[in-house]
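fyi for ur records
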Amino acid sequence: MKIAIIIIRTLIGLLFLYTSISFFLNLTPEPVSTGNFKAFQVGLVASTYLMPLAKTIELLCGLSFVSGRFVTLANIAILPVTINILLINFFLTPQNMPIALFVFLGNIFLIYSHWENYKGLFVAKG
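which gave:
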């Protein structure tokens, strides 16, 4: 189990590092988008803050996953991003679903593997 945690954490971390660094340094050309995804992407770019925010979170969480430090915090911080990646790909670009599923399920697996660290979040104090 420990080896699986390290492998999944590292792969997801490297993927987030690659996508965020590529975004900030313009290392890869933007893929051509069409239809509803293009309209959605235009809206994201028009917001001016949303893509840099998401890519900053991906960069910080990618560093955390690769280094193995603050993984519990990174799992929670990246969860909304992975949910959006999954839903965007499900509804707008289904051909990218395998990667989206890997990222989302990997994030859920990492949360499950660190579940002891999250138990305090679900205790009702009266």
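Residues 2 and 113 are 9 Å apart (CA to CA). thats all i got for now
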